[in-house]
């Protein structure tokens, strides 16, 4: 196996990182509603593993701790830390862990610039270093890298294969002057990637990330991909998702074998107060120790998606999480979480 190695999400974790919403984020007008969801999510994760709750300042920390205590979250599995933040998308500003030759973890601190400068992200870009300097990650080293890479943009099987949508990495607003070949070389060197699968198609309406892979296609095992499917020709996303499906059919694993493909349904379109479509989907699930947390939207397809994922993860509990508050800001369950590999949290 190549050194270093990027673990799959289903491998053992030491915890999950959440960066909580506060009054200075875009969540201000629905803060009470979204904080209830965060508290529910933190308490749910804490049934299975520790939760690192990143708070904006001391006053925010007191508010978060009170809310977690009120909901009855397991105090032995709660960690609270301070780091100023612009927003809450921990998947994209959180650290990415790799396994080193010694077997120990190394955290990589890639740059985050608000998905190509769409949103202010200066505080978010400093969160990992702030936490590391406070000793939140124990003795795990943190290495800063100049490449802009969001955690939601990459998906791995844990065996050196990586899946990504090209435009979310090869982007003059994210990584000016870097070709796909140059980025691929960085991924090989820093993440241990030996087999790269690049998608040119795939998008769901309302996605500010330009097509993060965690909204579209996920590894469920080294030989299995589940993906977002659209079967309605009148849907605005139909053509892109159909083209993506054809790309997935053509993909081969490192041994030259086709992948087992499992389609996920799409919920009925959801819209914001201005009539803009929101990027709701089921591929944005989170795998943790012993469970898979599934975003739901009070849609008849929720149950079908949960049943499909139960079949793909038969040894894990399937836990639905109502993500309608989250989707109003353009993201869902996986987008607000970042798993921390075994050995990171003390």
What does this structure look like?
The protein has 346 residues and is of the alpha/beta class. The chain has one domain (13-341): 5-stranded Propeller (L-arginine/glycine Amidinotransferase, Chain A), CATH 3.75.10. Helices cover 25% and strands 25% of the residues. The chain is built from nine helices and 18 strands. It has helices at 31-46, 58-71, 90-93, 114-117, 127-133, 180-191, 238-250, 301-312, 324-327, and strands spanning 13-19, 51-55, 78-82, 96-99, 105-111, 142-148, 155-156, 161-165, 195-199, 217-221, 224-228, 260-264, 270-271, 277-278, 286-288, 291-296, 317-322, 337-341. The strands form six sheets. A four-stranded mixed β-sheet has the order 3-2-1-18. Strands 4-5-6 form a three-stranded mixed β-sheet, sandwiched between helices. β10 and β11 form a beta hairpin. α1 crosses α2 (58-71). The radius of gyration is 19 Å and the shape is globular.
Strand ordering within the main sheet: 3-2-1-18
Instruction: Return residue spans where pLDDT drops below 50 for at least 5 consecutive residues.
Output: none
Distance between the termini: 27 Å
Quickly give the CATH architecture: 5-stranded Propeller
CA-atom Rg in angstroms: 19 Å
Q: Pairing-aware structural class of the strands and helices?
A: alpha/beta
Number of strands: 18
Count of spatially separate domains: 1
Fourth CATH level, the homologous superfamily: L-arginine/glycine Amidinotransferase, Chain A
Mean pLDDT: 97
Estimated share of beta-strand residues: 15-25%
GO molecular function, one term: agmatine deiminase activity
Pfam family, one: PAD_porph
Organism: Thiocapsa imhoffii
Keywords: Hydrolase
């Amino acid at each position: 196996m190549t050194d270093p190695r990027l673990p799959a999400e289903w491998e053992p974790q030491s915890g999950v990182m959440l960066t909580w919403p506060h009054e200075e984020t875009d969540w201000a007008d629905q803060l009470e509603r979204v904080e209830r969801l965060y508290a529910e999510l933190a308490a749910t994760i804490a049934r299975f593993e520790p939760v690192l709750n990143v708070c904006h300042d001391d006053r925010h920390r007191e508010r978060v701790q009170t809310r977690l205590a009120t909901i009855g979250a397991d105090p032995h599995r709660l960690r609270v830390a301070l780091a100023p933040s612009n927003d809450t998308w921990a998947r994209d500003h959180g650290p990415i862990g790799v396994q080193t030759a010694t077997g120990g973890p190394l955290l990589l601190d890639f740059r985050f610039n608000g998905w190509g400068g769409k949103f202010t992200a200066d505080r978010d870009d400093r969160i990992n270093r702030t936490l590391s300097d406070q000793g939140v990650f124990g003795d795990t080293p943190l290495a800063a890298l100049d490449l802009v890479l969001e955690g939601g943009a990459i998906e791995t099987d844990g065996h050196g294969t990586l899946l990504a949508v090209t435009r979310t990495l090869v982007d003059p607003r994210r990584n000016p002057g870097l070709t796909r070949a140059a980025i691929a070389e960085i991924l090989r060197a820093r993440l241990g990637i030996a087999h790269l699968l690049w998608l040119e198609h795939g998008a769901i309406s309302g996605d500010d990330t330009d097509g993060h892979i965690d909204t579209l296609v996920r590894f469920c095992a080294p030989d299995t991909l589940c993906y977002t499917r659209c079967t309605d020709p009148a849907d605005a996303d139909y053509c892109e998702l159909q083209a993506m499906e054809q790309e997935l059919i053509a993909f081969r694993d490192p041994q030259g074998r086709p992948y087992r493909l499992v389609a996920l349904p799409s919920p009925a379109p959801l819209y914001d107060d201005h009539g803009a479509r929101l990027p709701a989907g089921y591929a944005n699930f989170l795998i943790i120790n012993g469970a898979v947390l599934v975003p739901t939207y009070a849609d008849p397809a929720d149950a079908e998606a949960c049943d499909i994922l139960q079949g793909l993860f038969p040894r894990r509990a399937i836990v639905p999480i109502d993500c309608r508050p989250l989707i109003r800001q353009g993201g869902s369950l996986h987008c607000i979480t970042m798993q921390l590999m075994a050995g990171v949290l003390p």
